[in-house]
C-alpha cells in the first residue's frame, strides 16, 4: 500500500503531457504515409511507446532521439511482424492498429496486458469481418489476443455503429484506406475526431456530414509534415479539478487541446460553478489549443450529466466524481455504461473507492449518483490497474481528512509518467 501524503494548495504554471489520442495517431498515420513526418512533443507514456514499438515491428523506420520522433513512412503496406505485437494496456493501440492490419495481406497477432485482454474487441471485429478480414480471438473472437489475417483489397462498408466510439470509428476509417468501395460510419453521438482531422492533413478525402463520416476518392496518405502534439485535456483535468477544490489554489495549464469533441469537462466545470478562464486560444497542427486558468471555487453546484455530452468527457468522469463530492446537491451521471469496459470497470472502481472514503454514492448500471458537500475521510482505495482511477484518488487525498492508502500507482505511467512530480511541483 502506498501512503498518499500530499497536501497544500496548487499554484503556478504547468504544461501537462501531450495528448494521448493524437500521439498514437501521429505514429500510426505517419507510418502508413508516403513521406516524412516529424513529431514534436510526442507523449512518452507506456501506451504511446507501445504503439511506436508496434510500428517498428511492422517494418517502419522510426527515429527517436527522445526529443523528436522522425517517421520515414512506409506507405500503406507494412511488413509481416516476426512476433506477437504486445501493446500493453492500450485500447487505442489494439483497436486502431487492427484496422490497419485488416488491410495487410499477412498474418499478425495483437495482445496486451491482463487488463487489455479482458476488454471487448467484438466492436471492431464485427465491422472488420464485414469488410472481409479474418479476425480471431478468445471466446469466439471477442477478446485478445487477436489474430488478424488481412486481405487486400477489403470490402466497403456502410456501418451504423451502436456506440459513440472514436476507436471503432477510427478502426473502420483506417481499414477503409484499403478499399476503393464506399466507406461510411455513422455514430449515435459525436466522438473525438482526431483521426478524421489528421487523415485530411495527410491528403485523404474525408467527408463529415452530421454524425456520418465517409472516405472519398483519394485514400493515399502522402505528405511531409511536422505534427506538434498539444497538451492532453484528459491529463489537465486532474489539476483543473484539484485547483477547483483546494482552497487558495490558482494555476495555469498551458497548450491544452480544446477540440470541441474533447471539451465536455469544460462545459461541466462551467455548469458546476468552477472559476476558470481560457487564455490565448489558437490553432496548432490543425487542433484548437489554449491556456486554462483555474482557481479555487467555493460555490460548486451538483448537476446531471447524460446524453450526447458523455463521449465528450468519457475519460474525465473519474475526476469529475471527485469534483462532485464537493458540490452542493446530488450529481448524477447516466448513459455512461461504456465506463464498464474501460481500463477498469470505472463505475465499480469509482463507487467502491468513494464508499471506502465515506462518501454516499449510489451505483446504476450506466452511471452513479454522488451526494455532494461530503467530507472525504481517509481509508484504503484501489487503483484497479487503471491510470485515471489512481490519479483521481491521489487528487482526492489533497482534501481528505485522514490519510488515503492506495494499492497501485504504477499504472499511472500508461498516460502520465510524471504525474507525481508535476503534482509536487504545483503544491505550495
Ligand atoms: C480514444 C477513444 C475513447 C477514449 C480513449 C481514447 C481514442 O475510447 O476513452 O481513452 O484515442 O480514440 P472509445 O472510442 O472506446 O470511447
From TrEMBL:
List ligand-binding residues for 3-phosphoshikimate. 20-21, 25, 165, 167, 315, 342
As its record notes, the protein acts as a catalyst of:
3-phosphoshikimate + phosphoenolpyruvate = 5-O-(1-carboxyvinyl)-3-phosphoshikimate + phosphate
Name all Enolpyruvate transferase domain ranges: 8-423
Q: Which CDD domains match?
A: EPSP_synthase
Leader sequence segment: none
Major enzyme class: transferase
Q: Which GO terms describe its molecular function?
A: 3-phosphoshikimate 1-carboxyvinyltransferase activity
**Where phosphoenolpyruvate is bound, by residue?**
20, 91, 119, 167, 346, 388
Kindly list the places in or outside the cell where this protein is found, as annotated in its UniProt entry.
Cytoplasm
Give the chief site where it resides. Answer: cytoplasm
What's the EC number here? 2.5.1.19
Q: Does the keyword Coiled coil apply?
A: no
Pathway listed: Metabolic intermediate biosynthesis; chorismate biosynthesis; chorismate from D-erythrose 4-phosphate and phosphoenolpyruvate: step 6/7
**Record's superkingdom?**
Bacteria
Q: Which keywords fit this entry according to its UniProt record? A: Amino-acid biosynthesis, Aromatic amino acid biosynthesis, Cytoplasm, Transferase
Q: Which GO terms describe its cellular component?
A: cytoplasm
Q: Which GO terms describe its biological process?
A: amino acid biosynthetic process; aromatic amino acid family biosynthetic process; chorismate biosynthetic process
State the active site. 315 (proton acceptor)
Transmembrane portions of the chain: none
Q: What does this gene product do?
A: Catalyzes the transfer of the enolpyruvyl moiety of phosphoenolpyruvate (PEP) to the 5-hydroxyl of shikimate-3-phosphate (S3P) to produce enolpyruvyl shikimate-3-phosphate and inorganic phosphate.
- Report the family membership: Belongs to the EPSP synthase family.
Q: How does it assemble?
A: Monomer.
Mind telling me what this protein is named?
3-phosphoshikimate 1-carboxyvinyltransferase
Q: Which organism is it from?
A: Desulfurobacterium indicum
Amino acid at each position: 500500500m502506498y501512503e498518499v501524503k500530499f497536501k497544500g494548495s496548487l499554484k503556478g504554471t504547468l504544461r501537462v503531457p501531450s495528448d494521448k489520442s493524437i500521439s498514437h495517431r501521429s505514429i500510426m498515420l505517419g507510418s502508413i504515409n508516403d513521406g516524412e513526418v516529424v513529431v514534436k512533443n510526442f507523449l512518452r507514456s507506456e501506451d504511446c511507446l507501445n504503439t511506436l514499438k508496434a510500428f517498428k515491428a511492422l517494418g517502419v523506420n522510426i527515429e527517436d532521439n527522445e526529443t523528436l520522433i522522425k517517421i520515414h513512412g512506409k506507405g500503406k503496406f507494412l511488413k509481416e511482424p516476426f512476433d506477437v505485437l504486445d501493446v500493453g494496456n492500450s485500447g487505442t493501440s489494439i483497436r486502431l492498429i487492427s484496422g490497419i492490419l485488416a488491410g495487410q495481406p499477412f498474418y499478425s497477432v495483437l495482445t496486451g496486458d491482463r487488463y487489455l485482454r479482458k476488454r471487448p474487441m467484438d466492436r471492431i471485429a464485427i465491422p472488420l469481418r464485414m469488410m472481409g478480414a479474418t479476425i480471431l480471438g478468445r471466446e469466439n473472437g471477442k477478446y485478445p489476443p487477436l489474430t488478424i489475417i488481412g486481405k487486400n483489397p477489403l470490402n466497403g462498408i456502410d456501418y451504423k455503429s451502436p456506440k459513440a466510439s472514436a476507436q471503432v470509428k477510427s478502426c473502420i476509417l483506417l481499414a477503409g484506406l484499403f478499399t476503393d468501395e464506399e466507406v461510411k460510419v455513422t455514430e449515435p453521438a459525436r466522438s473525438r475526431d482526431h483521426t478524421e482531422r489528421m487523415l485530411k492533413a495527410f491528403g485523404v478525402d474525408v467527408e463529415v456530414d452530421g454524425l456520418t463520416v465517409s472516405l472519398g476518392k483519394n485514400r493515399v496518405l502522402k505528405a511531409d509534415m511536422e505534427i506538434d502534439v498539444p497538451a492532453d485535456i484528459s491529463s489537465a483535468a486532474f489539476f483543473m479539478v484539484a485547483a477547483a477544490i483546494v482552497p487558495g489554489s490558482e494555476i495555469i495549464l498551458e497548450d491544452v487541446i480544446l477540440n470541441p469533441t474533447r471539451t465536455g469537462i469544460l462545459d461541466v466545470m462551467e455548469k458546476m460553478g468552477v472559476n476558470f478562464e481560457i487564455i490565448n486560444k489558437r490553432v496548432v497542427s490543425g487542433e484548437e489549443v489554449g491556456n486554462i486558468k483555474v482557481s479555487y471555487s467555493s460555490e460548486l453546484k451538483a448537476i446531471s450529466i447524460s446524453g450526447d455530452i458523455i463521449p465528450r468527457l468519457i475519460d474525465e468522469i473519474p475526476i469529475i466524481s471527485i469534483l462532485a463530492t464537493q458540490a452542493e446537491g446530488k450529481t448524477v451521471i447516466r448513459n455512461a455504461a461504456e465506463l464498464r469496459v474501460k481500463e477498469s470497470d470505472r463505475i465499480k472502481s469509482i463507487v467502491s473507492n468513494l464508499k471506502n472514503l465515506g462518501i454516499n454514492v449510489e451505483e446504476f448500471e450506466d452511471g452513479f449518483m454522488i451526494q455532494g458537500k461530503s467530507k472525504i475521510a481517509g481509508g484504503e482505495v484501489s487503483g484497479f490497474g487503471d491510470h485515471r482511477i489512481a490519479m483521481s484518488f491521489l487528487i482526492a487525498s489533497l482534501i481528505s481528512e485522514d490519510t488515503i492508502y492506495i494499492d497501485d500507482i504504477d499504472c499511472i505511467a500508461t498516460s502520465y509518467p510524471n504525474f507525481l512530480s508535476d503534482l509536487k511541483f504545483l503544491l505550495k
